[in-house]
Amino acid sequence: MIDRKPKQNRWLELRSPKVATPPPAISNRVGSPPKLVRGSSESIQPERKSRKERLKELRMLLESESMNQPPSPPPEPEVVKPEPTVSSALVTVVPPTVEPETPSPKRNNPIMASLPVLGLLLVLATPPGVAYVASTLLLRSPSLPNCPKIFWPLASASLRLYCAEMAASKKTLDDFLLAFELVSVLSEDHPLRPEINRHIDQWSMGILNLAESKFQAGELSEAIRIAKKTPPQTSASATVEQQIKQWQEIWKRAEGIYRKVEDLMRREELNLAFREATQLLNVGNNYWETVRYQKLTDLLHIAREDSQKLAEARSLANQGGVNNLLLAIKKLEEISDDSYLQDQAKKEVSALSKSMMTIAEDILNQGQWQEAIATVNKIPSSANLTEEVKDFIVLARAHVPALLDTPEGLTDAIAQAGTIERNRPLYWKAQQYIRGWQQEIADLTIMNEASRLARSQTIPDLRAAIAKLQLIPVSHSRGSEARKNISQWNQKIEEIEDRPNLDMAEKLASFGDVDSLKAAVERASQIGRGRALYDEAQERINEWRVRSERLEFQPVLDRAQELAAQGDFANAIAVAEQIRPGLLMYEQARADINQWRSQLQDIQNLQNAETSAIPGTIDGLIRGIQLADRVSPSGSWRWRADQLINDWSQTLFTRGLDQAIYDIPGAIETLKMIPPGTSVYNSAQAQISDWQSWLNPPTPVPYEQPTPTRSVSPTIEFDQPPDLNKPIRSDN
506, 496, 486: which is closest to 457 by C-alpha? Predict the structure, then answer.
């Protein structure tokens, strides 16, 4: 059996407890049956009829009898009994509306009134009338039951099943539930129970299908509510929980995809967002696959356009400059408020506006306070930096007296910046400027006192002034200026200390002799590296050193060159070696010594070559040629070496030809020792080629004997019998 819940029958005329209007068909009849309504706690019985009402009913009865028609008794009041499925509210009988009695018109003669009826009966008694009545009765369709007006406690099972089918055919949740309610009162052993159960299963599936359609339309909560209305112990009820779980999983997956796409759009990963959005097309829900996917696609197209605007704004911002930053902010403001990139655009606008504030501060620190104010006034209101701009303008105007660089001006600047209260956005920036100006006042006082001390240009006062400036830290705004003054005054002290030594050195060098110049160099060398006069002293020292060395060692180098010109290279080298390393003339002496040693070696090689070639043997000539070839190509003795090499090559060529008489391979090796560039080199190479051809003749090509033809048989005469194993050659 299907569990039945208390539910009012929608086919019963349910009204609130008030007098109902009678149906039109009997609204004018006196004594019409009373109307029944639900919801009253007790049954209201029809009121007792008055004397006038009873007389009126009696007159109507007499008139009906006079017309030979049976009187129609007043219908009994219809009492609606509560069904088992309806709530325990009782049915209330509402009394009919009693109209006031109106005066009866004057009655006509009953016989005259019955004449039309008698005429109609005579017409129907004729054969055509009989045929008409018969055809009308045959063609008239039986009337169908009117389900809303059925008294259900007395209705049959087939009638209940019929009306339940009519209700279920409307395919709405209330009608399905009404169909279940109509058949639920029938027992399990009823003969129609199999047919009823079959319909119940169909109606249960109808409810699930209705829920599925709601789910596909995007109404998940409604779909779950409808699905839970499925009656238990039906074939569809077993799949309700599983179906709801599947819907929830599909919905959760679709929402996850949608949120992920939204996050990707916020991160500007639009290509990945497009690919992710296509997964909605396969989630298994028409609403997500059509409506939400189309909405997401539209949002992606908007995000792509906004992303392009962001890229253009960033490109402008990267170019730098106030104008480019303003253009970038204007481009970012074109992004709509409902865009997923709106948050990023706001961050970009805020960052660019802060960059403009930084640029304005840099301009302000350069002393251009008017341009700085003009820059911050260009910041748009959308950046939400209005209060910061106001505070910045106050600070910019405070810089005006600070630019005077006087204690009074700095004090005025501190007073103006002090008007920025603690609750203001640039309060700490103002405090930073105030501390800096306070430090500048203290540092300016120290620098003024140090400058007063340094005016005397004496070493004690200069040292005292330097000691005062060292109290100013490097990190202070006047720290670099203090360090510059310290360096200048230190140089002044060094110059005062070292100038007497340099003056004395110049006086010594003025004598011009070697000893005086050396003494001047020694005196000027007392000025150490890094001192104020060090560079000047080094310049003088180099000049005096050159003069001193030339006076001392130029005669030595001249003597060595004179000996070398005479060909006495050994003694020239010995004299030049007196010039020690480190002297200015050492490099020149070293170059001359190397040249003289090369010439001395060339002479030695020529002497050894001539000694080797004197015997005139092949080995001696070869050794002489090799030693002579060692002479430097750029040396002054190279011409002599080339001459000897050419002479000895000619002699070696002759010796090779003589050697060929008894030793051709040895002669080839001898001629190979003749160097290129000599007069007999080409002849030697040609002779070597001939000898090698003679020693290594080419392999003869085997001769193929032609096949004799029968038509030609030449006669060959032999002095002796021919060797048939050798090919016959004919010299042409």
Answer: 496
